TrEMBL record, chain A:
Lineage of the species this protein comes from: Bacteria, Pseudomonadati, Acidobacteriota, Terriglobia, Terriglobales
Compartmental location: Membrane
Name this protein carries in UniProt: Phospholipid/cholesterol/gamma-HCH transport system permease protein
Provenance organism: Acidipila rosea
UniProt entry keywords in alphabetical sequence: Membrane, Transmembrane, Transmembrane helix, Transport
Principal cellular location given in the protein's record: membrane
Single GO term (MF): phospholipid transporter activity
Automatic annotation (TrEMBL), chain B:
Domain of life the protein comes from: Bacteria
Lineage: Bacteria, Pseudomonadati, Acidobacteriota, Terriglobia, Terriglobales
Protein name: Phospholipid/cholesterol/gamma-HCH transport system ATP-binding protein
Protein's UniProt keywords contain ATP-binding: yes
InterPro entries according to UniProt: AAA+_ATPase, ABC_transporter-like_ATP-bd, ABC_transporter-like_CS, P-loop_NTPase
ABC transporter domain span: 21-264
Organism: Acidipila rosea
């Protein structure tokens, strides 16, 4: 690659990171500035939270089910089929619940935010909003960030619960295990550190989904083709970041709590 | 145009003395390419300046600079005595309450009704609903679209959308209106209707305005007509006269190549200007 091209590419990346940091920082700072768009937060929470509920429930249930199905046969080889519940609940609550819920919400909402804001950008609606004296970061971005973080927290709890139930359904109905034993091991194996890890992650993931979706939306250029590009990039970048940040949080939590 | 009831305008903000817009050596470029190069001009309060030039020359960029939507690379832009080129976005929101802007394609919020589009600024200011309804109706009456209150922009024609955009720009009674090609892509009859509205804003409400147009015909209609408030229609000025508060700017290759009156424009010896206007 010729030197000027490398130089330009590096500048572009640094500039994008700077823009992303500014957008996220300003949007969050707007939470404490008047006017407060409470109604917009509720509308977005409904769209993001309630709207994502069906896919989160389905994903959680079948993930828990397939986890029980796969692990039960392996555990049976060691005579440990009784701890299927422990394995399912630990995996769901610490890892799969937050990550899979976030990936689902990212696919649905990061793309939605990027395309909605991107369309508004290319049709000058964002400029029109600024020209009418309204801050789009306050009116459009802040409510999306707040509501995504808030709803991700509860969606993850629902996904954890439904996943554990899915595992129970497979263990009891298909594998003929004892239901009370399943729930007993699932409950007894959990400690504070596991719950904390499972509930801290969705807060970070919610922030990533909303800020990346809004960032790509607000920086859309180039008409309908640009909107398509922003939408794809928002999903790809937020999904990759979720996985990377998941690893970092897990590593940090394990070093602090020892599990 | 059909007769319309007189509009009870809300009290207009009194801007400080001095020009409405002042550009001093303003330059801007994108991705290393210069778009506007050392542009200087003035728009006096109550005047209308028509900005002409070939497509892609930076006319819309100039309009966005005037409203603080873009920041210049160098130079100073002052609007009503406040230096917009040095103001922070939060400070600009306050100033923009006194500036109306009509975008090229209208830029109406497609998920809101016409009522909510026109009354958007009033809703943001938490004006009571009854007052919003009243003022939106008045603004829509000016553009003769009061029957479209509950429609969404996708249900309107291109010309109707531009008229709604004009109503939205003037609903809060701004002291300055910026028009970005309000007649672009419209048929001649609809274009004349839009220009009539712009002339009405100029002559009846005495608003300062900066207007971009690609249609030379629209520019000359503005210069050669006045608004008759009694008959509620636009009429030709006496032969040989033009509106002396309407003047022209012309951009070419990033530079301001003309700044003067209708008479000067028509009689210019500059080969580019002669070719452009003939």
């Amino acid at each position: 690659m010729p030197f000027p091209t490398l130089d330009r590419a590096a500048k572009k990346i640094v500039s994008a990171v700077q823009q992303y940091a500014l957008l996220s920082g300003r949007s969050l700072a707007n939470l404490f500035r008047k006017p407060f768009y409470g109604a917009d937060i509720i509308v977005q929470a409904d769209r993001i939270g309630i709207g994502s509920l069906p896919i989160v429930i389905l994903t959680g249930f079948f993930t828990g089910g397939v986890l029980a199905l796969n692990s039960a046969s392996t555990l049976a080889n060691f005579g440990a089929a009784a701890i299927t519940g422990e394995l399912v609940s630990l995996s769901m609550i610490k890892e799969l619940g937050p990550v899979l819920t976030s990936l689902m919400v990212s696919g649905r909402n990061a793309s939605g935010m990027a395309s909605e804001l991107g369309s508004m950008m290319v049709t000058e609606q964002i400029d029109a909003m600024r020209a009418l004296g309204t801050d789009p970061l306050k009116k459009l971005v802040m409510p999306r960030i707040v509501s995504t973080i808030f709803m991700m927290f509860f969606l993850t709890i629902i996904s954890d619960a439904v996943g554990t139930l899915g595992g129970a359904f497979v263990s009891v109905v298909l594998l003929g295990q004892d239901g009370s034993q399943y729930f007993h091991t699932a409950y007894q194996s959990l400690v504070f550190a596991d719950i904390l890890q499972g509930l801290v992650k969705p807060i970070f993931f919610g922030f990533i989904i909303a800020t990346i979706g809004c960032f790509y939306g607000m920086t859309t250029r180039g008409g309908t083709q640009g909107v398509g590009r922003s939408t794809t990039q928002a999903v790809v970048v937020s999904s990759v970041l979720i996985i990377v940040v998941d690893f970092i949080i897990s590593k940090f939590m394990i070093s602090v709590f020892g599990r | 145009m059909a007769s319309a009831a007189p509009v009870a305008e809300p009290q207009q903000w009194q801007p400080p003395a001095g020009p409405a817009i002042l550009f001093e050596d303003v330059s801007i470029g994108f991705e290393g390419k210069p778009v506007l190069d050392r542009i200087s001009f003035k728009l006096e309060q109550g005047d209308t300046r028509i900005l002409l030039g070939p497509a892609g020359v930076g006319k819309s960029v100039l309009l966005k600079l005037a409203n603080g939507l873009l920041k210049p690379d160098s130079g100073r832009i002052t609007v009503f005595g406040e230096e917009v080129s040095a103001m922070r976005e939060q400070e600009l929101f306050r100033l923009r309450h006194h500036i109306g802007m009509v975008f090229q394609e209208g830029a109406l919020f497609d998920s809101l009704t016409v009522r909510d589009n026109v009354g958007y600024q009033l809703m943001e200011e938490h004006v009571p609903d009854e007052e919003i309804d009243e003022r939106v109706k008045e603004a829509l009456r000016v553009v003769e679209l009061e029957h479209t209150m509950e429609k969404v922009p996708s249900e309107l024609s291109g010309g109707m959308r531009r008229r709604v955009a004009i109503a939205r720009a003037v609903v809060s009674n701004p002291a300055l209106v910026l028009y970005d090609s309000p007649t672009g892509g419209l048929d001649p009859i609809t274009s004349t209707t839009i220009i009539e509205l712009v002339v009405k804003q100029r002559d009846v409400f005495r608003r300062s305005s900066l207007m971009i147009t690609h249609r030379l015909q629209d520019a000359f209609v503005m210069a050669m007509n006045r608004y008759n408030e009694k008959e509620n229609r636009m009429e030709l000025l006496p032969e040989g006269t033009v509106d002396d508060r309407t003047s022209f700017l012309m951009l070419n290759e990033g530079k301001l190549v003309f700044d003067g009156s209708t008479h000067d424009l028509v009689h210019s010896d500059d080969p580019f200007i002669s070719r452009y206007i003939r």
